[in-house]
Design brief:
This protein has helices at about 15-30, 40-50, 50-65, 105-115, 135-145, 160-170, 190-200, 215-225, 240-250, 275-285, 345-355, 360-370, 375-400, 425-435, 465-480, and strands spanning about 70, 75-80, 120, 185, 205-210, 230-235, 240, 255-260, 290-295, 320-325, 335-340, 405, 415-420, 435-440, 440, 455-460. The protein is an alpha/beta fold. It folds into 3 domains: about 15-80, Orthogonal Bundle (Arc Repressor Mutant, subunit A), CATH 1.10.10; about 105-130 and about 375-480, Aspartate Aminotransferase, domain 1 (Alpha-Beta Complex); about 150-375, Type I PLP-dependent aspartate aminotransferase-like (Major domain) (Aspartate Aminotransferase, domain 2), CATH 3.40.640. It binds pyridoxal-5'-phosphate.
């Protein structure tokens, strides 16, 4: 695959195109990587013995192609966002009927790899431990222990720790949402928030409409609850198809809809605001609850935080779920839900599930948010993940077969990769393991074996070693294809 313009500039091409071609080649071969500063206009004009205008024209061309960007008073940089022209997977086309989910064996197998330190970790979508604010959290925990407050060893019954709910309500403003601390129930991670919502809105045998592909942890919940999945076609950049969803709710007795509108896992798709509004209005017409998972909403790569669908909720039907697992500490198991009109039911279900979420982690996260260090931490990890995703994309372009398609996420840290038709992701998974690499086979992102030749790759652990593993993975894929 090439980063360069469709027709490579030959000898007869204008000088500036040849200069641009040369820089594009250096990016393609990894000399300059996403986020790197390229030579200044003056340096390059001296080095190549061409005029400043020629270099400027070359840089404008590369900017138009999406390969580099100018930063005021600083120079030109290889873009951390993905260059345009990458082929993306097409909108998904899952089975039109509800299906019983049954993917647990394969899922548990993939999860076990996450514990193996000898594998290149492209499998589970966990954050990079180096980017978790461990020192700060440890010091908050130590201070809680020093003050030896008896309340930190007691239950905090649902809805959970008030100081934390205040912080969550304050931050919700950035997501376009006006919440009071009383609207929120603390949970053990986002997955429990979703579990409680599903149990509040449906029973065994009911059907829930979901995006396809869908994060396998949620499919597992549905499997364990005996809830059928109605998979709806989903666009790799703009999320669930509203036309298909409208048809589904008109023709199937759906009990709820469950989506990850901001940086869906595995697609990385982010629904435009107008579409979120339409989604909420569509479901409100049928009085159907929307379970909204915003776990990665804070991990946008640039610009501003995308708002949540809950911002458009007028009837209390949107159940907004999230956690601190992607950006602070997955091991703390602290999440939350704003369940709208079903709050009393969710609160009661939380109590019946496990009485309360552990107290100390709630206090520690509240302390971290209160300390003011959270925004600084977020700015840092957003930049790093943006760079890692871009670097992994470029490495895939360099080393995978040319028929490969990849998503262009604008947030989060996973890539969804469509491989040539002949590649079975399970065969690839096994071969890759032998070579010391773990990845997630596409099969487990659907209840109906939709994604045979797809894989999800986690870019959060990017490094020179990871790049070599991608190169090796590319070789294995080419052997199978
Ligand atoms: C979309 C999505 N939802 C939920 C979860 C689980 O979140 P938590 O660890 O907060 O329970 C994950 C974890 O990868 C996820 O990607």
């Amino acid at each position: 695959m090439s980063l360069r313009a469709a027709s490579p500039s030959g000898r007869g091409a204008p000088l500036y195109e040849r200069v641009a071609e040369n820089i594009a080649h250096l990016v393609e071969t990894g000399t300059f990587r996403p986020g790197d500063r390229i030579p200044s206009v003056r340096q390059l004009s001296q080095q190549k013995r061409v005029s400043v205008t020629t270099v400027l024209q070359a840089y404008y061309l590369l900017e138009d192609q999406g390969l580099i960007e100018a930063r005021p008073q600083s120079g030109y940089y290889v873009r951390t966002q993905l260059p345009s022209g990458l082929p993306e997977p097409e909108i998904s086309s899952p089975e039109p009927d509800p299906s019983q989910v049954s993917i647990h064996e394969l899922t548990m197998m993939v999860l076990r790899d996450a514990e193996n330190p000898n594998l290149a970790q492209f499998g589970t979508a966990v954050p990079n431990p180096e980017l978790v604010p461990t020192r700060k959290l440890n010091s908050i925990m130590a201070s809680l222990a020093r003050h030896n407050e008896p309340r930190s060893n007691q239950y905090v019954f649902p809805p959970g720790c008030e100081a934390l709910r205040v912080q969550i309500a304050q931050r919700a403003v950035n997501a376009g949402c006006s919440l009071s601390p009383n609207d929120i129930v603390i949970t053990s991670g986002c997955i429990e928030a979703i579990d409680l919502c599903l149990r509040a809105v449906c029973h065994r045998g009911d059907t829930v409409a979901i995006e396809s592909p869908m994060y396998f942890g949620i499919l597992q919940l549905m499997e364990s609850l005996g809830v059928q999945a109605l998979e709806i076609p989903t666009h790799p950049r703009e999320g669930i198809s509203l036309e298909a969803l409208r048809f589904a709710v008109e023709h199937t007795p759906v009990k709820a809809c469950l989506v990850v509108p901001n940086f869906n896992n595995p697609l990385g798709s982010c629904m435009p605001d107008e579409k979120k509004k339409e989604l909420v209005e569509l479901l409100a017409r049928y009085d159907l609850p929307l379970i909204e998972n915003d776990i990665s909403g804070e991990l946008y790569h640039s610009g501003k935080r995308p708002i949540v669908s809950k911002a458009y909720d007028r009837k209390g039907l949107v159940m907004l779920c999230s956690s601190f697992s992607k950006e602070i500490a997955p091991g703390y198991r602290v999440g939350w839900v704003a369940p709208g009109r079903l709050k009393p039911t969710v609160e009661w279900l939380k109590f019946t599930a496990n009485i309360a979420t552990a107290t100390l982690p709630q206090l520690a996260i509240a302390g971290f948010l209160e300390s003011g260090g959270y925004d600084h931490h977020l700015r840092h990890i957003r930049r790093v993940y943006a760079r890692y995703v871009a670097q992994m994309s470029l490495a895939i372009m360099r080393h995978f077969p040319k028929e490969t398609r990849i998503t262009r996420p604008t947030g989060g840290f996973v890539l969804w990769v469509q491989l040539p038709e002949k590649v079975d992701s399970l065969v690839l998974y096994r071969q890759a393991l032998k070579a010391g690499i773990t990845l997630t086979p596409g099969y487990i992102f659907s209840a109906t074996n939709q994604y045979r030749n797809f894989i999800r790759l986690n870019a959060a652990f990017w490094s020179a070693e990871a790049e070599r593993a991608i190169e090796r993975l590319g070789e294995i894929i080419k052997e199978i294809a």
